[in-house]
Amino acid sequence: MNGLFQQDVNQETFILNLGPQHPATHGVLRVKLEMDGEYIVDAEPVLGYIHRMHEKMGENRTWAQFLPNCGRMDYLSALSYNHGYVAAVERAAGIEVPERAEYLRVITVELNRISSHLLWFGAFVLDLGGFTPLLYAFDDREQILDLLESVTGSRLTYCYFRFGGVYNDIDDSFITGTREFIKRLRKRMPMYDALVTKNIILIKRLKDIGPISKDMARRYGATGPVARGSGIDFDVRKHEPYSVYSEFDFDIPVYEEGDSMARYMVRMDEIEQSMRIIEQALDKLPEGEIQPKKAVKLVKPEKGDYYHAVEAARGSFGVRIVSDGTNSAYRLKLRSPTYSNLSLFGEASRGMLLPDALALMGSLDLVIPEIDR
Amino acid sequence: MPEPFRVILFIIFVMAFAGLNAAYLVWCERKGAGHIQRRIGPKEVGPFGLLQPIADGIKLMTKQLFLPKGADPLLFMAAPLMVMVPAIMSFMVIPFSETFVAREVNIGLLMIFAFASVNVLGLLLGGWGSGNKYAVIAAARCVSQNIAYEIPMLVTTITMVMVTNTMNLNEIVRAQAGWFFHWHIFRLDISLLMPVAFLIFFVCSLAETNRAPFDMAEAESELIAGAYTEYPGMGFGVFFMGEYANIVIGCALSVILFLGGWQSPIPFHPVGFLGVIWGLFWFLTKLYALIFTVIWIRWTYPRTQFYELLNLSWKVLIPISLFNLILTALQIKIFPWL
Predict the structure, then answer these.
(1) CB distance from A132 to chain B under 8 Å?
(2) Where are the domains of chain A?
(3) Among candidates A158, A8, A148, A178, which has minimal Cα distance to A84?
(4) What number does CATH give the domain A53-372?
């Protein structure tokens, strides 16, 4: 016993190290917990176990060379990260994107959002001790991965978007496949509802557990489902519309309760909303090019400071580019949503029981490589 | 059959039954979980993966048995045995068929409950002796959970003893002879709450054996592996076998007390050797149906929270089981001819 674990024997509390290897943290996150029995006195997330210096890499690589990095931060909704970076560079360099390409971006990003939420759903119920829904969710997610593989070429770390468009057009089999998948998922959602959402054990584990107030969410800069579960009506797709999102009719699910159940419900409702967006996008899909007529070969944004945010599955993902007019960024700042969402864990978990705190942590939907970048 | 020979035969049988049950219930669990989760489950080792438990056992036995730093050697090593041995002992009084019972003890029921409470001590010492914080938390949970759950379970059992007037398990089964509506679970004339009493007993035996949805002591997503966290190789294997043996005991008790034990649903019972087989068949059928339910529950429901469990026990199960006790006493008094 030494160092961090050294303790006064007369002390009433003890330090519990949750992670970096722990089943509930879903990755190499470490949380230092000060415990009084099973009650948490204080919690401190310790980050950096999977830090890969993506921001620094952004300064050393050319604009195009950084593209594959985007898929390796949040590996569950990689396309949103592609989108955020590509859109920021397009804004900086003033590149026009054909309409068809924007539609393809929206369709693939929303499919990716559904797959991310499905995986979260399974992993979250797994955190609560129910194993089976995970495999049911994977079954559905598999269909999305197959669809996305057919058009992007990869299943997890996508690098599909290019400056000015996308790299591959979709075909009829993708469109019919996507429509069939949506029909299938609509049929499956009532099953998830009956098996999990309406389960009395789950309701008791989530209702009024881990409340995050509106004020707390604002102070820590929480975004995405975490903020929307606390009654903050903010979604980048709706409030700062980018791409072609303003052309679709969809709702932003907002729950006022702020407990783990509210965050759960937000994500489950978002799956339905994403399906609505995809359906409308497939109906309206315009013909045309998927890349600008004159291919973008050399990107050299004007000197300046640019920012673009997109709504990723976990919240608002922002890219700030400081360009000095050369072929690589002077500074690339990536604002990842989970970093802010996790930072409220210390305050929110104070005084909670360990299993409840882990339910709260699960409801934040953590992807560790995205926190550390 | 000469007495010493009979005893040795039964010891061998009971140990083989407990060991094989543990091994093959793991297989059933994995296969069942597989089919519930729309996958196949083990299939590589032997036909239908039937040799998988043996492969698992060999793997566990080849692992090094090391003692973690800061562990208490005696408690650490003794704990798995304290879970396994009482479970095997309990099999001694279980009537598999009318004459197929190692020892027809008059206080069989009391003996099983006495041994069952040692199980908790084993988990507590294992968790404490590991010198691991997660294991200690699990051990503490385990104790408070079992204290809460033994009360409704014992009150229900007292009710059944009151009804049958005996603690001899075989006598309890004999009291349920005849058609299936003579089984205690259907005897509304003894107590209107009999099916509820069965439910209470079954839920309590789930909690008693630390099975989902009450597996807070193991809680792999919170406490890694709970009290078993530090156990390597066969130390863990013995815990595991003890857990499955306890599930069998719990389900066997439910069958004996409420579902007529080795009685068939129709009033037909052949004599002699055929009768033994007939009784054995019905007992095992009911037993494994209940065990399958236990497995089914585990792969369907998430884990409850700790205080929910205590709430359920103190606010729901204990009052209902006490009310059932009084109601039964009343009904027996009013209709003494039953």
Answers:
(1) yes
(2) 53-372
(3) A158
(4) 1.10.645.10
